[in-house]
Specification:
alpha+beta, 2 domains, 163 residues, 52% helix, Tetrahydropterin Synthase, Chain A, 4-stranded antiparallel sheet, elongated
Length: 163
């Protein structure tokens, strides 16, 4: 062989080495570009200030006061085709910190009655729709306050099973 042919073969790295280098370099470049873009996006959101934060993040819930857990409700609820479905609901009610346990327990029968009256009118579709659960809580809280439990702050749905 001539000298030029020997130099050409010596200068070319083997294909396996080249592919190994590319297998490391290309993902590194992609990861670096993603990190750079993420940092720029994060900096842009931070520069926008707290006004760009969602409103629900700013609301801080007060610590819970006394809580009364109700016995589970078991009832039937109809769907749009009038087919009945079994439903089991367990509720808990949080009250003001000033409320006394003895007073709260006296409202339990009224609260159960108001909850049962409301839940019987609930359709199957409303019961299984997660987006409507906040509306159910609000309606129940209004009913509990209407029957005299004015210290009620929040209704918690601690268990909901619908078949």
């Amino acid at each position: 062989m001539s000298d030029t042919e020997e130099k050409k073969t010596e200068e070319k790295p083997p294909k396996k080495v080249l592919s190994a280098i590319l297998a490391i370099v290309i993902p590194s470049l992609i990861a670096g570009a993603g990190a750079f873009g993420g940092a720029k996006l994060s900096a842009a959101h931070a520069a926008a200030g707290p006004s760009s934060a969602p409103e629900h993040a700013a609301v801080v819930a007060p610590p819970p006061g006394p809580t009364v857990s109700l016995e589970p409700f078991v009832l039937l609820t109809p769907d749009v085709t009038k087919r009945m479905h079994a439903m089991k609901v367990t509720l808990a009610i949080e009250f003001d910190e000033k409320a006394k346990e003895e007073t709260l327990k006296s409202f339990t029968p009224r609260i159960r009655d108001a909850a049962l009256a409301y839940l019987r009118g609930l359709s199957y579709e409303d019961a299984v729709d997660g987006e409507k659960s906040e509306r159910v809580r609000t309606d129940l809280l209004e009913r509990f306050r209407a029957v005299g439990a004015t210290a009620a702050n929040r209704v918690l749905i601690t268990d909901l099973v619908v078949q």
